[in-house]
Design goal:
Layout: H1 3-40, E1 46-52, H2 71-78, E2 81-87, H3 93-102, H4 138-144, E3 148-154, E4 173-177, E5 190-193, E6 196-199, H5 218-222, H6 230-244, E7 250-255, H7 267-270, H8 294-318, E8 325-331, H9 343-346, H10 361-364, E9 365-371, E10 380-382, E11 386-387, H11 391-399, H12 412-415, E12 428-432, E13 438-443, E14 446-450, E15 462-465, H13 481-494
Parallel strand pairs: 1-7, 1-8, 2-10, 2-11, 3-4, 3-7
Antiparallel strand pairs: 2-9, 4-5, 5-6, 8-9, 12-13, 13-14, 14-15
């Protein structure tokens, strides 16, 4: 008998043991480096997370924008680290915010789509599907670790009288829009402070009213403005929270509504752009408020957002908190396609494919800038593949808190300039039930997408090599059957049944104990 055949099992065992030893050594090295990174943070830092709304990947200076001026974000990038492969959990508002707050991906999150519970008029305000009681969130985690927790801006995860109220989900203080639909008007009649309505000096108007292009006057466009601009109020409350909790540690989540439509911003931010663009009035034909100068207004909204980031950085420096405050900036999803926004004109997502509501890169790849003087290396860039549901484990490691079963990983080693200690992940998983039902997986250089799954449970995969095809144009799926089988296994592993029928498009077993959501 051939001696090689007799030795084959022993050779396999030796190879397997060697491979196992290598993997354990690699894991130990990464774990050791992560512990060293954690030790580098000797004091619980203040954490400020600034969240834009519908801001495209390339709509700020650090990411190549040339028509819109963002000097404060330019400065933030110079003084910190810019990420080039950072993803939202979902391509629309509510699920992205749920995944950020809970550290879950689209296959595990409780909220996976926009689910309206009321109408747009004041008397119809009902918010969105609330987070359930017992949800583990970032503010709850940090509050347990001794942090004061505050939120400013758009919540979208439950009204004041629901289980999803910000105060019931871990925030000590809240000020802003509870209902996403109300947040589509920058001159609302009221905002919310904690669980109480706070009136603003604005009259109600219907933001979905359309104007007749043949008859519209300057006065008609002026009707869609007011006296008190909601983001002004939010910034003031945010800066006051920082001042009040300057002794720290504090966590402040600033979820601005900019530059989400409607197109509304104070005149002084429009003026610098007037005459630069060949623009025509927007009469409301695609929804949201009419606007006489849509291009200049949109640019002005992003410049306004940029200015608020500058005010926050200046306040931190003024209070002497720079070296113990980490500031992070990102957006919930890609640029919108309606309301008078012209993504092509601004090259809002550069050469990425897709916009808001798409799981292609333009819908989910987001700007992400991190600034922490003395800790995060200045003027650096990282191509680490990361996601917003990484914030929970990252903030846990920053604060010494304990995260409960997040889908993400801590990015702290990368933040601190120690990439050798960064834990890597095999893939990112995205699941989005709207626009036909979509699934996406990012795995190394590969990006895989399935579309129209509500109607086609066995929809075909599209596979792209992002290292050569960032625009996701050349479908390579037929050439990689083994990889496609691996993708199917990932879907089986990551998808958990949704709790309402409309979101259950991956698994053929449909639930029957709940109604379809209202839009």
């Amino acid at each position: 008998m051939n001696k090689d055949l007799l030795c084959a099992p022993e050779k396999k065992i030796r190879v397997c043991l060697s491979l196992l030893a290598f993997m354990l050594l690699a894991f130990a090295n990464a774990s050791f480096a992560q512990k060293r990174a954690a030790k580098a943070v000797k004091k619980q830092p203040n954490i400020i997370y600034i969240y834009a709304d519908d801001l495209g990947y390339a709509e700020t200076g650090p990411y190549g924008q040339t028509k819109i001026k963002t000097p404060h974000l330019d400065r933030m990038a110079r003084e910190g680290m810019k990420f080039t492969q950072h993803y939202s959990g979902a391509p629309v508002c509510a699920p992205a915010r749920c995944m950020l707050m809970t550290g879950k991906n689209g296959g595990h999150a409780y909220i996976r789509g926009n689910y309206g519970m009321g109408g747009s008029r004041d008397e119809e305000e009902g918010g969105q599907m609330p987070l359930p009681e017992g949800t583990f969130t970032i503010p709850k985690m940090l509050k347990n670790a001794g942090y004061a927790t505050g939120m400013i801006g758009k919540w979208g995860l439950g009204m004041n009288n629901s289980t999803g109220s910000p105060l019931k989900q871990g925030f000590d203080f809240y000020y802003g829009y509870l209902d996403q639909k109300q947040a589509q008007n920058y001159y609302p009649t009221h905002l919310w402070e904690n669980d109480q309505q706070v009136p603003l000096n604005n009259s109600f108007f219907d933001i979905n009213e359309k104007l007749d292009p043949a008859r519209a006057t300057d006065a008609d466009f002026e009707r869609f403005k007011g006296k008190e601009y909601a983001p002004d109020k939010m910034t003031s409350k945010g800066l006051a929270f920082i001042e009040q909790h300057r002794s720290g540690p504090f966590f402040l989540y600033m979820a601005y509504t900019l530059p989400h439509v409607s197109l509304q911003v104070p005149e002084r931010y429009i003026q610098p752009y007037l005459g630069q663009f060949d623009e025509q009035p927007y009469y409301g034909q695609q929804g949201y408020a009419p606007c006489k100068y849509p291009l200049s207004t949109y640019a002005g909204m992003i410049s306004y957002l940029d200015e608020q980031v500058g005010l926050v950085m200046d306040k931190i420096k003024q209070l002497g908190l720079d070296e113990n405050t980490i500031i992070l900036f990102s957006s919930d999803n890609g640029t919108t396609f309606n309301g008078g926004v012209q993504a092509t004109f601004f090259k809002s997502v550069a050469n990425l494919r897709g916009l808001k509501m798409d799981v292609f890169e333009g819908g989910i790849r987001e700007p992400f800038i991190v600034r922490w003087p003395g800790k995060v290396p200045a003027n650096t860039s990282s191509d680490l593949i990361s996601a917003q549901f990484d914030m929970m484990p990252t903030f846990a490691e920053l604060s010494g808190a304990r995260a409960v079963h997040p889908d993400g990983i801590s990015l702290l080693p990368t933040f601190l300039g120690k990439p050798a200690g960064q834990q890597n992940r095999p893939y990112l998983y995205f699941e989005y039930p709207e626009k036909g039902g979509q699934v996406a997986i990012r795995m190394g250089k590969w990006k895989a997408v399935k579309l129209n799954m509500q109607k086609q449970k066995k929809a075909e995969w599209q596979l792209f090599d992002l290292s050569r095809d960032i625009s996701e144009q050349l479908n390579l799926a037929p050439a990689y059957p083994g990889l496609i089988r691996e993708l199917e296994e990932i879907v089986k592993k990551e998808h958990q049944s949704a709790h309402i029928n409309e979101w259950e498009f991956v698994d053929s077993k449909m639930k029957t104990n709940s109604a379809s959501p209202k839009k």
